[in-house]
Each structure stands twice: as C-alpha cells, then as structure tokens.
Design a protein that fits this description.
The protein is of the alpha/beta class. The protein has helices at residues 66-73, 103-109, 124-134, 141-151, 155-158, 171-183, 201-214, 227-233, 260-265, 270-276; strands at 26-37, 40-51, 55-59, 83-91, 94-95, 110-113, 189-193, 219-223, 236-244, 250-259. The strands form 2 sheets. It has a 6-stranded mixed sheet with strand order 6-7-8-3-9-10, with helices on both faces.
Length: 281
C-alpha cells in the first residue's frame, strides 16, 4: 500500500495582534529598490515599510536576494566594488544613500548579526566593548558591557570570566555575545541574517526569546529560511521569490508583505501560499 504525504508546513503563530498599519510608525520606507551586482540584478522594484519595535521576517527560497536586501538597510553592500542600487531607502524620513550621509553613522544606528557567530579573538569583555571604544562611547564602559550582556541573556553565564576569550563560548553563547556586541552601542535597528541557522534547537529558542524580549527597545529585521521560526517570532513577514526576466534573467521580487498571521493562514498570492505550505522553494 502506498501512502501520499502532502508536503505542507504547519505553523502556529503566538503573538498579540499588531495594530493596523496606519497606526504603526515606519522606521524604513523603501521605494522602487533595485540591488545590482555588476550587470546582474539581485532584487528589483522592492517597495515596503518596516515598522518600529516590531520583528519583520524576510522569507523566500535561496537566491531570491534576502541577504542582499537587508544589507541595503545599513549600506553593508557598499563594501562590494561591483554593487550599486537604485530607488530609495528612507530611515526616519532621511535617504540613507544621500551624498551627505556617512555610512559609518548609518551602521552606528543599524547594527547587524550574521549567520554564523563571529566573535573577535578577544576577551568576552573586549568583544562587547569594541564598538563603544571605536565610537568614543567610553564613559561608564563597564556598565555598558554589563547592560548589553544582560540584555543578551548572557551576563549570568559569563560575569565571572569576562577576561576569557569569546571563542571559548559555545555556539549559542557566541551568537548571544555577537548580539550583545551589536546592542552595546545602543542602535535603533538590529538586522539578523539567519542568526540561528548554525545553532541547535535550545540555542535557537534562546535567540528567539531575546528578539521577543528586546523588541520593545529595538526594531528587528530577520532573514530566515525557517518558516516555523518566522511564524513564532515575526510580527510582519515579507515573502520574496525568484522571477524570470528576458534572456534567462533571474532576480528577487517582493511578492507579498503583511502581518505574519495573514501570510501564514490567508495569503493573498498563490505563490506565497505554495511556498509556506511547502509546495515549492
């Protein structure tokens, strides 16, 4: 007897309903954004708003430009010689790519946590203090380090070994250390590019709990391949997919952006439904 298993992904969302969009405060306003490497577009014509003190998840298949997209928010792509972008990203109403805007100042306000933990080969203390020292935020440095480690739910685990190498921590602890390093300089926004993909389920749960606890103080934008994770942690979810242009061109396109509950239970676009139910991607 053969059994056919429908390739669906069941998700449950557990959060308070968010207010209507007209009552939310935009922190980013993206209009007509194209991100291009050389002659190849990674994403095309993306327009959306990211709202203050919410967790916004970016989901979609590999190659649809998710990581490229969030790196536009803090101008990390500027470091790639072949990269250019068109369109506009306004942060608190100001064009972050305007000629008078310092990318370092942008990154001061918009921190980033990467896919794999990347602590510096320094002590736990110096990892957290590094950004503060670079930016001249040296007053009450001990208190800043303690506060960041506490917010990252790491203080109790490391307070007696702050001089130990950050590389001596477990993978989950290292990622929380990187979160502490990012928030020690008191950013406005924290970008997270698949922050739990290299972690075990327990460490992943700790990172998700951190986002939930800290979103009253920070705005989070997270790239994730894990749809259950998006459903658990995100207030808003944007689904990107790969579209075909002329002569075999492929690029990322924003298909649908809405409250997470709606994306996973009543999406407006068939392509979103197919993706979140596991029918493609």
């Amino acid at each position: 007897m053969s059994i056919t298993i429908e390739p669906t992904v069941r998700v449950e969302t557990r959060r308070q309903p968010i207010p209507p969009r007209e009552r939310l405060e935009p922190i980013f306003e993206v209009e007509g954004l194209d991100a291009i490497y050389g002659a190849k577009a990674a994403i095309k014509d993306v327009s959306m708003e990211v709202y203050k003190n919410l967790v916004t998840a970016i989901i979609g298949p590999s190659g649809c430009g998710k990581s490229t997209y969030i790196r536009c928010f803090n101008r990390m792509n500027d470091l790639i010689p072949t990269f250019r972008q068109t369109g506009t990203i306004r942060y608190h109403g100001q064009d972050i790519c305007a000629s008078n805007i310092d990318p370092v100042a942008v990154r001061r306000n918009i921190g980033m946590v990467f896919q794999r933990p990347n602590p510096f080969p320094k002590s736990i203390y110096d990892n957290v203090a590094w950004g503060c020292r670079v930016l001249g935020m040296k007053e009450d440095l001990d208190a800043r380090v303690e506060r960041a480690l506490t917010q990252a739910a790491l203080w109790d685990e490391v307070k007696d070994r702050l001089k130990a190498s950050g590389l001596s921590l477990s993978g989950g602890q290292q990622q929380r250390l990187c979160i502490a390093r990012a928030i020690a300089v008191e950013p406005d926004v924290v970008l997270m590019d698949e922050p739990a993909s290299a972690l075990d389920p327990i460490a992943t749960q700790a990172i998700e709990q951190l986002m939930h606890q800290l979103k009253s103080q920070y705005t989070f934008v997270i790239v994730t391949h894990n749809m259950q994770q998006a459903a658990r942690v995100a207030d808003m979810t944007a689904f990107f997919s790969i579209s075909q242009g002329g002569e075999g061109e492929r690029y990322g396109e924003l298909i649908e952006y809405d409250a997470t509950e709606k994306i996973f239970t009543a999406p407006s676009d068939k392509r979103t439904e197919d993706y979140v139910t596991g029918r493609f991607g």
